[in-house]
Design a protein that fits this description.
This protein is globular. The protein has 156 residues and is an alpha/beta fold. A 6-stranded mixed β-sheet has the order 3-2-4-1-5-6, with helices on both faces. The chain starts with a strand and ends with a helix. Helix 1 packs parallel to helix 2. The protein has a single domain, classed as Phosphoglycerate mutase-like (Rossmann fold, 3-Layer(aba) Sandwich), CATH 3.40.50.
């Protein structure tokens, strides 16, 4: 199984009266998401499905990739939670029919924690709009290895 994990692009700070869930991507964040989408298309990276946190900034990031790759996008509230972990990812993958290649769009620090959990530990910090690819037989703790990790400044 190939699992791509993407942190959302740069988002606006929360303004008075605005919920965290409603924060939009900045212009830079939209560009970052476009760079990642173009990178994936240019490298002919394919995924069966994209599952995103329902928070606006994550959906905006995921939508850019979904539109470029022509892939279905669904949301799962579990990804937005502060406790999102490998077990949750395994449950999501199972609910989605255990796709061979899945893109998950989420938030820090949980997206880094899930990567670390999948590969059996390590200190990983995903910068905005970083994309990692881990591979293994299933979405289980310690059962995968990190193939690569990129961010927009590296690939632009």
């Amino acid at each position: 199984m190939q699992i791509y994990l993407l942190r959302h692009g740069e988002a606006h700070e929360r303004e008075p009266g605005m919920t965290d869930a409603d924060r939009l991507l900045t212009d830079a964040g939209l560009r970052q998401a476009a760079i990642i989408a173009d990178f994936m298309a240019g490298k002919q990276i394919t995924v069966d499905l994209i599952v995103s946190s329902p928070l606006t900034r994550a959906v905006q990031t995921a939508r850019q990739v979904a539109d470029v790759l022509g892939v279905e996008l669904v949301t799962d509230a579990c990804i937005a939670g502060p406790g999102f972990c490998v077990a949750d990812l395994a449950d999501i993958a199972c609910e989605l029919g255990n796709p061979g290649a899945l893109l998950v769009v989420g938030h820090e620090p949980t997206i880094s924690g899930v990567i670390a959990g999948l590969i059996g530990g390590g200190n990983i910090k995903m910068s905005v709009c970083s994309l990692a690819m881990v591979e293994g037989t299933a979405a289980r703790a310690g059962s995968c290895y990190l193939r690569w990790l990129v961010n927009p400044p590296l690939i632009a």
